[in-house]
Structures are given as structure tokens and as C-alpha cells.
Write a structure and sequence with these properties.
Length: about 425
Amino acid sequence: MPLKAITTVSSLLLSTALLLIGHGMQLTLVPLRASANGLSDLLIGVSASAYFLGFIVGCVAIPGAISRVGHIRIFAVLTALMTSAILAIEMLDDWRFLVLFRFVTGVAISSLYTAIESWLNDQATSETRGRILSIYNFILLMAMALGQALINVGPVSSPTPFTLAAVFLVLAIVPVGLTSKLAPAPVPPTQVSFRLLYQRSRSAFAGALLSGLVVGSFWSLGAVFAGNTSESQSDISWFISAAIIGGGLLQYPIGLLSDRMDRRKVLLLLCLGGTLTSIAVAASVGQSWHLASVFLFGATVMPIYAMSLATAADVSDVTEFVQIGTSVLMLNALGALLAPIALGQLMFVMGAPALFWSFSAICLVFMAFMALQLRQTRVVTVEEQVPFSASASEVAPASFDLDPRGPEQVEQAEQV
């Protein structure tokens, strides 16, 4: 990518990295603190669902607010709210406050993603848009993984790691606040159609839901599982990091494979992998190969979201991509909203390993559904598939304006 393209968005990317280091820390710290305070896995699951409910609300409600006050102001305000929420969670032990402030955090982070991604799209050109998306997704991975390592600066029962997370969140305001770049145009409202997504691709519909049920629950309850089966806080951070790194490193190779075969088959293989690796994680507790199984779990389940998005893009009209992509994202968030309550209750009744045994059962059910879809003729050939583009579920609908399968293809179609 030309140096000019990088410098154009350097301040925003730096703010994004700082923001996501703090966000990555709080994703693990909050459930660990709740567990240390004696809250049941069910209540921790309820608080996680409140987070994803806030995420959905933020995606739907924030475009209008950005249009009224601008990107820089909304970034500063939302970061302040998010910082206040994590500090309040650290100070207040009552589960009602936990649910409330996790909801606020969900609203804030999805809204911040919306502001960041729409800003990146405005600064990108048709030649650099796809590459900026790749850099953005790389920053998402690296910053959140670094956040896992930093939770070990102090015991989870102390204010130290929460304070450090808050410091990173506040620092994220500085590069954006000092930028001389003009803020972009208003963000268009979010458009969602689950019906359209289901009509275009049942496999993509199922994959998006599966990703939310499994990956969303992992973000919500994975640290609780690790806390109940590990001996130290460092073990917990390694547990979460192993899954993140596995999902990040294997997404591109799996994507390249999917460019050469029917993506529905790749989704089927990922479901099979999710089934087997979930069993391995549950069965390997206390074994030397436990982290390897967690790495493989992340490698098989975390790419499901991007694969579902690519599968939907294959069979969608180019003018539909933003709406289809938003529907994939929101269905993923809906699954992440619903699953933690049920799985938290299972963990409360049956113990921590029930989380990964449940993941295995869920992946097995969706694998059977994917197998049924392979019996139907696909409307596009492998040669007609669009090139795979890495995507993360930790984004907002504005990211689809960055994707080369969206506006750039529309521009190309208009030129033909």
C-alpha cells in the first residue's frame, strides 16, 4: 500500500489500536471479576447478553447521532462512556450494575466501530479500500491479543488491570482528537433483512447464527471456563490468546482454500472442526496439549463468520452486499445475545466443561444442516465466487463499505 494511504488514516488506526487493547482487556477482566465476586455463571451469562444487546442497539441507533454531532465528538463521548463503565464495574459489585454497565459498553463499542469504519471508508480510495480493511482486521486481532497479555499486570481482584484498561481507552481519544483530517460525511442508517439473507444463502444464514452462538459465547464465558479449570490468571490470558491467535493465523489459509472449492463444503469442514476441537478442549483440561486444542478451536470456529459473509456475497447482487453483510453481522450478534444465558445456566448446573460440550453439540447440529444444503444445486460455480476477504465479527455495519465486495464492485459493474 502506498505510504500516503497509510499516513492518511494513521491517527485513526492508532486510536483504534489503543481502544482495542483496552477493550480486549475488559472482555476478559469483567467476567473474571464477576466470578471472583461470587456471581453465578448464569448471571455472568445474562450480563454478557446485555453486552450484545447493547452492541445491536448501538449499530442501529448510532448513525443518526454521528450525523448530528460528528465523528470526533461522538468518538470522544463514547470512549468516555466506555471508560466510565469499566471503572464503575470495578467499583460496584452488584449484578444489576454489572448488567447495566455491560449494556452501556456494548452500545459504546459498536458505535465506536461504526464511527471508525465509516471514517476509514471515507479516507480510502477504490485502490486502497480492501488493503485498509486488511490492516484494520489485523489491528483488531493484534490489539485484542495484546490486551489479554496485559490483564496480568495485577490480580483480577485488584483495581490495577481495570485502571490500565481505562488508561488505554482514554489514550485512544488523543490521536483522533489531534488529527487535522476532516471528518467524513454522515453515516447511512443500518439496513437489515434476515429474510433476504436466508433467501440468498441458507448456509450463510446458518453460519452467521452458529458463529454468534459459539464465538459470542466464547467471548462471554470462555474466561469463566478457564478460571474454573486453570491455576493462575496467566493461564487464563494464554487460554483466550491461543484462541484469538488460532483464529487469526488460520483465517487467510482457510479463505484461500475456500476460493478453490464450494464454500459450503468449507463451512461444513469448519463445523466438523468445531465439533471435534470443542470436545478436545473439554477433555484436555490439565493436559499438556490443552492450549494446542484451544488454538485449533479458535482456528476452526472463528473463521466461520468471515466464511459465512463470503458465502453470502457469492450469491448476492453487488448492490445488496452492504445489506446482506449487515444482516450477517446482526444475526451473529443475535446468536451471541441469546446463547450466553442458556450456556451460563448449563455451566452453573453441570460445571464449567459444559460450555465446550455444548459448543460441540451446537456445531454438530449445524454440520448436519450444512450437509443437507450440499444436496442442493448452487446458483454459482466455484469460478464465479468472489475472492475471500478476511472479516471479523467484532465490527459494525460501516465495515461493509470498506469491503471490496461492496461499493467497488458496484462501481465496476456500472463501468461495464
